[in-house]
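Q: What structure does this chain adopt?
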Amino acid sequence: MGYWEEVKDVLTKGIDLAKEGIKEGADSVVQRTKESAEMVIKKTKEGVTYAQLRAKLLFKQKEFRDVIADLGDAVHDIYKENKDIYTDENVKQIAEKVNAIEDECKTIESEIEALGKEEEKQE
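A:
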């Protein structure tokens, strides 16, 4: 084998190694990009879920305030008539609504808290 053939073989091997390195590097970049995109999608979904839960909680809290106001009006009307608050059916129904809404708010708050804990575990 002549000198120039050896040079050609060395250069060819060097070029082949460079091609393989570039291909592996490109594959690695593609894989990292894919993983990053998946993470972004997941975080976006979590953010949307969090925003939806917060909005739902705010609406429930407003509903809670409205029902409490209704309860106050009912109690005030009963007080003006000198009736017993504890035997009034309207007050009982409103109090049940208050309890139900309060439970719903607690459930939503626990979902929000659980979402935050999941996020902490992933980091």
